[in-house]
Amino acid sequence: MAIYFISDIHLGAKGAKQVTPGNDKEITPKRLKRFTFDSSEQKDIELNSVSGPSKEFYTDLEKVERFKTLVSNLDDAECIYLLGDIFDFWFEYKSVIHSRYFDFLAEMKKLIDRGIVLRLFTGNHDFWGGDFLESIGIEVYKEPRIFEHYGKRIYVGHGDGYARSDWGYNNILKPLLRNPFSILMFRLVHPDLAMFLAKLVSSGSRHYTGSREFPFREEYLWLARDMFAANEIDIFVHGHTHEPKLERIESGIYVDTGNFFRDFSFVRLGHNSIEISALE
Fold this sequence. Notes:
Order of helices and strands: EEEHEHEHEEEHHHHEEEEE
Strand order of the largest sheet: 3-2-13-12-1-4-5-6
Helix content: 25-40%
Structural class: alpha/beta
CATH architecture: 4-Layer Sandwich
Largest sheet: 8 strands, mixed
């Protein structure tokens, strides 16, 4: 059996160009890096050996089809962690569900019906997820949390707000967007207008995150080191940066799941190993 981690699909992202489905070559996973737990042995394939994406934008249809391809072959999955920004925008009204996400929601319900546990951590794009997702069987978490699998303590979260120097997000944007009054006011906006406004904001945020080398990486690594040194955890895993990474640090393992909107990277944790792969 195994545990899987996926993040940053950004369904609904503005800018994706429509294509005719079925023209892609066969989709297969390619391992990027693998660590075993019973020795210091590591089998690596450098990240830059992976061919880049065939195009800049993938449609929601293509992203969902790739997700289906991946999960349909996960015969050993007992739990899948979705580490935030699965949706480029998500807001829950009492009687409205965003229609463009229907196919993906249906796919998640199929996974739950197969007996696979789904745990979704909200990100900076889909932090308003909640009651509806839980009603179909998804466990929803709004803050990082420690879980234990196969004797390993794992710190799991989306990754936004981890860097203290990201002052604007931590002290202005995050408190504003998660304020109950802000949520109440936004609920008064018509869903179509809400989606339009959200696209304007989220496209700028996604461009900021993905258009440069992630500037807070060292702070993320220091946070992981501190938790490893305190013997609190064995594995530190997050998304948010869109840059896949798997490293041994001190006595633990640091994991960045990368993204599933362009590189289609994901992480598999087994009883004796952890590896990061990408669909080609």
